[in-house]
Amino acid sequence: MSVARPSDRALVLGSGSGLMPVLLGLRLGLRHLEVVEPDADRFTYLSEVIKENRLIRATWHTAVPADFRPTLIIADLARDPTAALPDVGKMDGLRALVLCLPETRPEIAEVFDHAATGGLTYFPRQSCGNVVTFLSRWHRAAGTVAMP
């Protein structure tokens, strides 16, 4: 949660219980929130959660919207390891990924490679266990100097 900023345009892949979209929308007041939930039952539940909590800046989809340019992507790859992350290399303005990693080493390595191709670096200070954070220019965010 501390990675998200109110000015973010967030993309949440997989809604789960709906808690993450509600926290991002209400607690942080994100500028815009796009939630992708391909499961029909969860999609129906999510639409009710969003309406009940009056998340007026949130929209939900069954697939990643082609025209949305997020600054933050949040995904639970442990719950759904087949969930495809968008091509982060083509996303101008993407500054952070927060991911719950899948369980197998090849899938984890693929996630790290995918983030690296998008210019994002693993940020250990904002990671814990199987939830990892990747930031663009993390050395500036952490107040440290990049290695030459």
Task: Please specify the SSE layout and strand pairing.
Elements: E1 9-13, H1 19-27, E2 32-36, H2 40-52, E3 58-61, E4 72-76, E5 96-100, H3 105-117, E6 120-122, E7 131-136, H4 138-141
Parallel strand pairs: 1-2, 1-4, 2-3, 4-5
Antiparallel strand pairs: 5-7, 6-7
Explain how this protein is built.
This protein is an alpha/beta fold. The protein has one domain (9-141): 3-Layer(aba) Sandwich (Rossmann fold), CATH 3.40.50.150. It has helices spanning 19-27, 40-52, 105-117, 138-141, and strands at 9-13, 32-36, 58-61, 72-76, 96-100, 120-122, 131-136. The relative contact order is 0.15. Mean pLDDT is 79; it is low at 139-148.
Q: What fraction strand?
A: 15-25%
The helix-strand sequence is: EHEHEEEHEEH
CATH class: Alpha Beta
Note the gap between the termini: 30 Å
Largest sheet: 7 strands, mixed
How much helical structure, as a percent, in the residues? Answer: 25-40%
Could you tell me the CATH topology label. Rossmann fold
InterPro entries: SAM-dependent_MTases_sf (IPR029063)
Summarize this entry quickly.
The chain is an alpha/beta fold. The protein is 26% helix and 22% strand.
